[in-house]
Amino acid sequence: MKNRRIYIAGIILAMFVASVGTSACGNKGNAGSGQKQTSEQKQITNESKEDKKTGSTGDSNKTENNTGSTNSATSTIASNTTGNTGSTTSTASNTEVKGDASEELDYANMTEDDLVKDLINKESLTEEEVLWLDSTFRYVEFDKFLNLPYCISYKAFDLLNDKGVKYEFSEKNIETLLKSKYPQLRVRAMEHMFSFFGLSDEHKEMVKELVKTETEPAVIKEAIAILGNSGNDPEVGAFLIASAKHEDPRIRETAASWIGSYWNDKMEGAVEAELELMKDEDIKVADAAYRNCNNMTDKRILEALKEALNDDKKYELHGSCMDSVIYMWLNYPSHEKYNKEAYKISMDYYKKKPRTKDVPYWIAVSHLDKVNEDKFDAWKKKAKYYKPKEIVEVMTDIVKDKNADYLARCCAIDVIAVHGGKKAFKDLKPIIKKLKDEKADSIRDAYKSKEKKFK
């Protein structure tokens, strides 16, 4: 899902830049996301890329009505546009798309070209034509991650974009989709709510109303992503906390990813919920909690991260743990946070012996290989605890340690180059040359591949 939304954000960003003639930084790409760049840059890098979707948006300008001969006027969006509980019937009259058995599609045997054959040569689509094409998502089964997979319906919108056909996702259509009896279309409605500028108050209220009765896991998961930055709203906060206890692990995982949002700093019960999610029996849930707690300042969070890093049996979680710990003291790319205790926890983890193929976890080493040169020097003046010499020494020790994982040793070379500069990198060459373990040649090759940068 993240890939799709980042793609959407890119399109919106391009439109924004074109309209105002200035550049802007995109945000994380989650529906309803409005987190500050300090946390968004990190999460873009670390969110799991489990979804292959690449949704699209149309032209934001109003389009003229066409009189094409598609079946858009009679598509079966929701038979009676019933609500998710089946107890409420929409009275949206003109927005409602009536059910008709003759309009059922042989979707499984169709292609994206089939879906747009009556639309592709138009200059712009009518509101009803867009609604018809959106309605085809009702045939798509959610994948094991509770996402809509990249399907011919997404591809159909891509074809329209490639051809330059103009269309918009109107508020009227969003409301209709959100009231559909098909969970796929309720999810689709929320996909359209995503904006480069964040979630509108109107859409927020619509989703808040939806989740009061929603029972479909995929829809709940999407709603968490939409409302994820609004946890300071008591109703939303309660929804996120409840979602953290949901029986479906993918819902708990999504809740774990959002409860620790920068914008949920006043959310009641957030810390306690995230701490419980760290203990979840599903490793993806626990991983999400460790990875997304970096904005939480409660001391219990850092203590939980330290405890996990001291448990070698949890090595698969160490990458996410160190991601958060390092973010707390280094805060790449913004370099605006300072945390002496978090720095010490990082160094203690890297220094821990005996090293094994699992500890230090190679991803945990890689999280230290980037700084933002534009802001790093100013940050160093305030971060008195930061000792580049200490970092170079421990990373050099990892490179030399034949018991450490090969990838961890290679990543350590990058860290030395970043925090030690040209001199430290060159001083490493004779050390690597003397290596005699079975991975020595591979380590030397890794060093050689980076050598050009310092010539």
Description:
Residues 27-100 are annotated as: Disordered. This is PBS lyase HEAT-like repeat protein. The protein has 455 residues and is an all-alpha fold. Among the domains are: 50-193, no CATH class; 297-455. It contains 21 helices and no strands.
Give the total of beta strands: 0
Shape from CA axes? globular
> Which regions contain 5 or more consecutive residues with pLDDT less than 50?
1-102
How confident is the prediction overall: mean pLDDT?
84
* Residues in helix, %: 40-55%
**DSSP strand (E) fraction?**
under 5%
Radius of gyration in whole Å, from Cα?
Answer: 25 Å
End-to-end CA span: 41 Å
Major sheet: none
Topology diagram in text:
Blueprint: H1 2-20, H2 37-46, H3 112-116, H4 127-135, H5 152-163, H6 171-178, H7 183-193, H8 201-211, H9 217-227, H10 234-243, H11 249-259, H12 270-278, H13 283-291, H14 299-309, H15 315-329, H16 340-351, H17 362-366, H18 373-382, H19 388-400, H20 406-433, H21 440-451
